[in-house]
Design brief:
246 residues; alpha/beta; six-stranded parallel β-sheet; two-stranded parallel sheet; 48% helix
Length: 246
């Protein structure tokens, strides 16, 4: 029902905003939408997020002061977080000095229990931490100090988590599907979201190669710097709406 409502709305609207070129191209090629009545506006960059590696954090100091891999995602089944736990569990020698921090609210209790079972299966209870929703100040520090931010979702119109992470200089390992390559460009190494082996090799590459990791950090900050702020996107949105009204 939602799909048909979305398509009908797109075809009958005077103007359609898309969050990514990937999504617009999908509507143009698959559903014959008129390109002249479309715009791509990529949400915008929150200027609050910037590198903050101070680690002056009483609540999470134990986690921030140890090497870790980070995932930031609400716990929905489609987010594909289990592939990260599988990879982490199979890389015990490589990640022996690392924790895995999973930040995000529990949206599906059944799925959350499945993830906990995987953690127990690999014997990772002392290395995997579900920290729930983080305050922006905490999240900024986790982004800034991680050895890798791993993004596992196969389907996104535009992944704002990746923009936050790049703004803080996180080295990123991302899925190679939908809008993720468009979002990060050269600020990430990519993997097939359905291949544990592919993710394994990318984690091993980033954790074991300081040159690659430092290059990703540099590219993340550079890519974030090219993205427009909330204010700029708001101004552009208003200009388009004014033209449509006229």
């Amino acid at each position: 029902f939602n799909k048909y409502l979305m398509l009908y709305s797109a075809k009958t609207s005077d103007h359609v905003f898309f969050e990514s070129f990937y999504t617009r191209n999908l509507f143009l090629s698959k559903y014959g939408l008129n390109e002249k009545k479309t715009s791509v506006l990529q949400i915008g960059r929150d200027e609050y997020f910037e590198p903050d590696p101070k680690k002056e954090n009483k609540k999470y100091s134990d986690l921030l002061n140890k090497r870790y891999i980070l995932s930031v995602s609400h716990l929905y089944p489609y987010k594909n977080i289990e592939i990260l736990i599988h990879a982490f569990g199979q890389l015990k020698d490589v990640v022996a000095e690392h924790n895995l921090i999973l930040a995000g609210s529990t949206q599906n209790n059944k799925y959350f229990k499945e993830l906990l079972s995987l953690v127990q299966y690999y014997g990772l209870q002392d290395q995997v931490f579900f920290v729930g929703n983080l305050e922006p100040s905490d999240l900024k520090q986790f982004y800034s100090s991680c050895d890798a931010l791993i993004f596992t979702s196969p389907f996104e119109n535009f992944a704002y988590t990746l923009v936050e992470a790049m703004s803080c200089g996180a080295p990123i390992i991302s899925t190679n599907t939908t809008a993720m390559p468009e979002t990060c460009q050269n600020a990430a190494v990519y993997f097939d979201p359905y291949s544990v082996e592919d993710l394994l090799s990318q984690i091993e590459l980033v954790l074991s190669n300081c040159k690659v990791r430092n290059e990703l950090i540099k590219n993340s900050l550079a890519r974030a710097g090219t993205m427009e702020t909330y204010l700029a996107i708001n101004i552009k949105t208003n200009e388009i709406l004014q033209n449509v009204i006229k």
